[in-house]
Every structure is written in structure tokens, then in C-alpha cells.
Design brief:
- The structure is a single chain.
- The chain has helices spanning about 35-45, 55-60, 65-70, 85-90, 90-95, 165-180, 195-205, and strands at about 1-10, 15-20, 25, 45-50, 75, 110, 115-120, 120-125, 135-140, 145-150, 150-155, 155, 185-190, 195.
- By secondary structure, it is an alpha/beta fold.
- It is about 25% helix and about 30% strand.
- Strand 3 (about 25), helix 1 and strand 4 form a beta-alpha-beta unit.
- A 6-stranded mixed sheet has the order 1-2-3-4-5-6, covered by helices on one side. It has a 6-stranded mixed sheet with strand order 7-8-9-10-13-14. It has a two-stranded antiparallel sheet with strand order 11-12.
- It has one domain (about 1-95, about 110-205): Metallo-beta-lactamase, Chain A.
- The protein is globular, with a radius of gyration of 16 Å.
């Protein structure tokens, strides 16, 4: 499994394109859809789906553009399904009142933790609330790749002062769902550089 990180928009939100050399999955297309399309066309990939870690505005800004261009489905957790349609919930109304985001409903709603298989890709879906109530992390077990959204960063954790956020819930999610993974698991956060579970155990000041 190959991957590339594409920081997008004013907050440099990480979009990830994960491929097997032919097909690909897109994580969190937050902004600048042309950058995503250009990369996919350059690599001659066929997108199969869009997986959302959560529905904050900076992670969904290019959702409809990418979904419509490739005619592929989008997945989100049930607790944030309505956020795609509501600028007050996804935060765009507060931060960008001149351009509130109202996306189309997701094509697939994730209910509870599960194993998700799309084409040749399989991910374990972990419910990891705290940054937002419907935050999920996607784990490719065989390759030990974790797409954590805004739950866990290099040297930091997600903010908890937004709608539905909770510091205690966030830290519990990290402790019980993420830090139990193997130390060599590569963590792909929603912002900033890639890290590993071992590095965060050893150096992340929020986890001590």
C-alpha cells in the first residue's frame, strides 16, 4: 500500500491518497480539489471512495467536488452525518460566514466500530471521539497504518473546545484505541507531519 500526504487550504489540512498502484482511497479532501485531482491523474489512479475522519469544515471543503468528479461514495460516522449539511455544526458558519459549507449527505453511514472493505483495501474503523463526537480513526492492520484525523498529532492531540469536544473523552480514545496498537504503527494525522505510536508514547507531552 502506497500513500501520499497533500496539505490543503489555509489550515494545511492533510488529505491522504492511499493506493495499491491502481486503485486508491481518499481521506479528508479538505480544500483545493484540483490539487487532489491532479495528483490522482498524474499517478493514473482510480478512486474508489472518500473516507472522512470527521466533519469539521477544514476536512470536508472539497468533498462534493471530488465525489462528483469521480462519482464515488463518501463515508462518515453517524454522529456527524448531519454536520455535512449544517454550517453551524461543521464550523464553517463561525470561521467563514461568507462561505458556509453545506455538503450533500454521505453515501454510507458508519455505525459502531467495524471492519470496512472497499475493493482491495481493508480498514478497521475505531470510534475515537473527543475532538468531535463522531471522530473515527482508520487502521490498515496488515500495513500498520493509522489515519487519525485530528485525534492524535506529532507531539500533540486534538483541540477539545469545539462542539461536542471533551478532553477526558479524547485522552481515553487515544489511550484505549490508539496507544494499544503496535509501536511501529505509522500515524497519519489531520495536520502536521507523520509520526509513529512509539514516538508519541515517548515524546508527546499530552500523553504523560
Amino acid at each position: 500500500m502506497k500513500w501520499t500526504q497533500i496539505p490543503l487550504g489555509p489550515l494545511q489540512t492533510n488529505c491522504y491518497v492511499v493506493s495499491d498502484g491502481q486503485n486508491c482511497i481518499i481521506f479528508d479532501p479538505g480544500e483545493e480539489p484540483q490539487k487532489i485531482i491532479q495528483y490522482i491523474q498524474t499517478k493514473k489512479l482510480k478512486p474508489l471512495a472518500i473516507l472522512l475522519t470527521h466533519a469539521h469544515f477544514d476536512h470536508i471543503g472539497a468533498l462534493d467536488a471530488i465525489r462528483d468528479y469521480y462519482e464515488i461514495p463518501a463515508y462518515i460516522h453517524e454522529k456527524e452525518a448531519k454536520w455535512l449539511l449544517d454550517p453551524a455544526l461543521n464550523g464553517s458558519q463561525k470561521w467563514f460566514p461568507e462561505n458556509p459549507m453545506r455538503m450533500k449527505p454521505a453515501d454510507h453511514i458508519l455505525v459502531n466500530e467495524q471492519e470496512l472493505t472497499i475493493g482491495g483495501f481493508t480498514f478497521e474503523v475505531f470510534e475515537t471521539p473527543g475532538h468531535s463526537p463522531g471522530s473515527v480513526s482508520y487502521y490498515a492492520k496488515e500495513e500498520r497504518l493509522l489515519f487519525s484525523g485530528d485525534v492524535l498529532f506529532q507531539g500533540s492531540v486534538g483541540r477539545t473546545d469545539l462542539i461536542g469536544g471533551s478532553e477526558s473523552v479524547l485522552l481515553k480514545s487515544i489511550d484505549t484505541k490508539l496507544l494499544t496498537l503496535s509501536d511501529d504503527t505509522i500515524v497519519f494525522p489531520g495536520h502536521g507531519p507523520v509520526t509513529t505510536i512509539l514516538d508519541e508514547k515517548n515524546t508527546n507531552p499530552f500523553l504523560r
